[in-house]
Amino acid sequence: MKVSREFFSSEMEKLHKRYRELDLALENSYDGIMICNNKGIGLRVNPALLRVTGLEENQLVGSNIAELQQKGIVAYEPITIRALQEQSVITGMQKIWTGKKVTVTGVPVFGEGKKVIRVISNVRDVEALSQIQHQDKLNRVWELSKRYSLELATLKKELEKSDHIIACSPEMLTVMESVMHLAASDVNVMILGESGVGKDIIARLIHDNSRRNKCGKYIKVNCGAIPYELMESEFFGYERGAFTGARQEGKRGFFELANGGTIFLDEIADLPLGLQVKLLRVLEDREIIRVGGENAIRLDVRVIAATNKNLEAMVAEGSFREDLYYRLNVVPMTLPPLRERPEDIVALLEHFLEHFNEKYGTNKSFSVEALYLLKKYSWPGNVRELINLVERLVITCKSPVILPEHFPRSMNIYTPESDSTTSLLIEYRYLREQLKKKNMKEILEEIERKIVLLAFKEHRSSRKVGEILGVSHATVINKLRKHGIID
Fold first, then answer.
1. Above 80 in pLDDT, residue 345?
2. In angstroms, how far is CA 86 from the centroid of its own chain?
C-alpha cells in the first residue's frame, strides 16, 4: 500500500498534537510525576516533582532509582523498584532526603509480550495533603458556622417580631431554637422552671408557630386554681342535668375547647391524684366522656404541661403518678432563671420601660447605677418581678431619671447617695462593661449626662449648675434638654 506524503504529514501532525496535550498535562499536574524505564532509570520528571522533592532535574533524569536509595535521597525501598519487580500497582509511604514524607504510587506500563516497559510514579506531599484535608474541614466548619449564624439571625428576627419574647442571652436563644423545632411536631412537652420565668409564654409560642395555630385554639389551664369539686367537669365538660346547678344546655370542658389545638396545663404538679388517673386515660385513649354522659368524644389535642416543682421527687414519694409523668414528660424543656442570663436583664428592663412609658404617657429612664444594680440583682421572682418593678417605678418615681434610691427597700439593693465611694465604684464597673459594647463617644455622652443630672439634682438651679461646672447658663439648659432631664 502506497502512503502519500499528505497522509503521512497529517498523521504526524495528529501524533504531535497528542504529544503536546500529554506534555501539557504532565507539566501542569499538581502531583509529582516521574517516568522510568524497565531498568528503573529516570526518563522524565515534571515541575511538581522537583517542588515536592527539592531536587534538580539532572539529579533524577538519567539516574537509577536504586542509586538514589544508596545516596540516601530515598529512605526506604523505592516504590518504583517494587512496581517493576512485582509488575503491579504499588502504593506506599516514602521518606525523602529532606525528612518530608510523601505518598508514592508506582504504575507499571506493559508492552508487547506483557513485559514492563515503563513505570509511572505519582508522588504527593503528605503534609500538603493533610493541609488540604484540614482546610476542607475548616471550610465545612465555616459553612456550618455560617448556616448556624443565619439560623440565629432568622431566629432573632422572629423574636423581634414578637411582643412577648425578649432574648439576647445564649441560654435563651438555645431555648428559642428548641421551641421552633418543637413547634413543627405534636409531641407532648414538659416545661420546667422557677415561678415567673415565662413558661406560659413559651407554651403559647410553641402553639403559635405550629400547624395547630390555624386549626385549633390554645387553652391555658391553671391546675392549681380550680376547686377540686369542679375539676372534672371543667376539664372534661358535662351533659345537661348532670348535677344541680349545671347549665341546662351542658358545657364543653377544656379538652373539648382545645380539640384540634393545644392545651397548656400550668402547675401540673397541683393536680389531685384522682384527676391524674382520668387525665392519663385521656392521654392514652385520646377521648373523653363528659360528666353525666355516655358517648366518647374523640380528641386531637397537643398537651404542654409546666411546673416549678420537682416532679421526679413527687413521683418517688407517691404524690404524682409515674405513668402520667412519663406521658407528659416526652420532651422536657428547662427555662433558666433570670439571674443566670444577665444579658437579658437590661434588654427586658429597656423593653418594659418603653412599654410602660407609652402606656402611662411618661418619659422615664434608668440611671447608670440603677441599671448596674438591677443587672446584678438576683430576681427571685424572675421576669414577672421585673415587669412589676418597672411598672411600679414608672408610676411612682417623680424624677425623670430612675435612681437606686427609688427602688423598693424590700429588694435590699438600695445604695445611699451619700456613699460616694460605692457610687463611683458602681459607675466604674458599669462603664468598664459598657466599653465592650459602646464606642468612646457614647461613653462620654453617658458620663456628661450623669454629671449634669447629679449637679441639677443637688442644686435645682440651672444657673447654679453653670457656676459649678464652669459653663454658661445657656449651655446648661441645652445639656438638660439634650439628655431629657427637663422639657
1. yes
2. 56
